[in-house]
Specification:
Number of helices: 8
Strand content: 15-25%
Structural class: alpha/beta
Strand order of the largest sheet: 10-11-9-8-7-6-12-13
Largest sheet: 8 strands, mixed
Number of domains: 2
Length: 357
């Protein structure tokens, strides 16, 4: 290695995150991550700003080849670069700020629901909401869906995700046509399908996922899985100080009850008798917004904690608001998943330097 006198700098968008057994580097610009040994995390954080020669001086000579392999890996993966003046490349500011009172919302619907959709969407728009999940638990026709979506046309929603129960009416072409005709739709999930599969709407990239798993109530929510990981600046910075599921979220249950999340017990009135903005004035409406992953048992030792959403409704210990999510099968102490769905990111197998820990 010919850069022994230079300092290695990660690109500002590449963030190392330490876990109990292994760490990750999260690339917030290119939406990817790689596993790294905790020894490399130590070098990138505790020995940050030191030259390669200074780093090698900390370890036995037998570890120097491994250190060279670490930096070769980082360069080949384009996670960083060597430089003589590292002070010219400041770190990314991880402060999360959003002007919206509410950033995301859920509306649950069953055959008994009588939601005033136009009013709800107007109120969400006034709160600045940009993302909405519409979850249908009973059969619904394409015509009914389109009628509801018509009420969103004049508002500021940017992303609408649909959760629909399987119906023979939902042919591939019908669902694709629904997405094309409603460009705010950013994803569709069809539950209780004959088989699980995925397709994309050509020209838009909108995913349509069919899953054989049923979803007939809010209880189907809360699963933690690599397929739900989000690797971007928005979620990563929000996760530093806020809850990545409940922060600035509001929901309307099937009966019109307003909650932070449909699965949470506390309610703040009914959409038929109180406005969403008034519901947000309830003292407990924001109690869960700032429970961050670094405060949650087990999660705080997980290398995925800043790219993973967090469920506070279903917990291993229901009496502890800071208990691990019940529906997470990952063990950061063994780096194993209880169920299938192991993360597919390439693992970097070089071991950590000796005597670091």
């Amino acid at each position: 290695m010919d850069s022994a006198g230079d300092v290695f700098r990660l690109f500002a968008n590449c963030m190392p995150v330490k876990g109990a057994r292994r760490s990750t580097i999260c690339d917030l610009q290119y939406h990817r991550f790689d596993f790294i040994p905790n020894g490399l995390y130590y070098i990138l954080t505790e020995l940050k700003g030191k030259t390669v020669s200074e780093i090698k001086a900390v370890f036995d000579a037998s570890q120097h080849v491994i250190i060279d392999e670490y930096f070769t890996f980082l360069q080949e993966k384009e996670y960083g670069f060597f430089c003589a003046e590292p002070e010219l490349f400041p770190d990314l500011d991880l402060t999360w700020m959003a002007p919206e009172q509410i950033t995301n919302a859920i509306i649950d619907v069953n055959e008994q629901s009588r939601h005033p959709y136009e009013s709800i969407f107007d109120q969400l728009d006034a709160l600045g909401c940009k993302a909405l999940q519409l979850r249908f638990f009973d059969p619904v026709s394409v015509g009914e869906i389109e009628k509801i979506l018509d009420s969103t046309q004049r508002g500021g929603l940017r992303h609408i995700e649909l959760l629909l129960p399987y119906s023979t009416e939902f042919s591939d072409d019908t669902l694709k046509g629904l997405c094309v005709g409603n460009p705010r739709i950013s994803g569709v999930v069809v539950s209780s399908a004959p088989k699980s599969r995925r397709m994309e709407v050509q020209g838009t990239g909108v995913p349509i996922d069919f899953t054989s798993a049923p979803c007939t109530s809010p209880a189907c929510c809360g699963e933690t899985s690599p397929k739900y990981f989000v690797i971007n600046i928005g979620l990563f910075t929000e996760a530093q100080e806020w809850n990545t599921c409940l922060n600035r979220k509001i929901s309307v249950s099937v009966d019109g009850t307003i909650r932070n999340c449909p699965s949470m017990p506390d309610s703040f009135g009914n959409v038929g008798t109180i406005s969403l903005s008034d519901a947000l004035m309830a003292p407990q409406s924001k109690d869960l917004w700032n429970i961050k992953k670094d405060q949650i048992k087990v999660c705080r030792d997980c290398e995925f904690r800043y790219i993973c959403t967090d469920c506070r409704a279903y917990r291993e210990d229901p009496s502890d608001l800071r208990s691990k999510p019940l529906k997470c099968g990952y063990n950061p102490y063994s780096a194993e998943w209880k169920k299938s769905g192991e993360a597919t990111a390439e693992a970097f197998e070089v071991g950590p330097p000796a005597d670091v820990y």
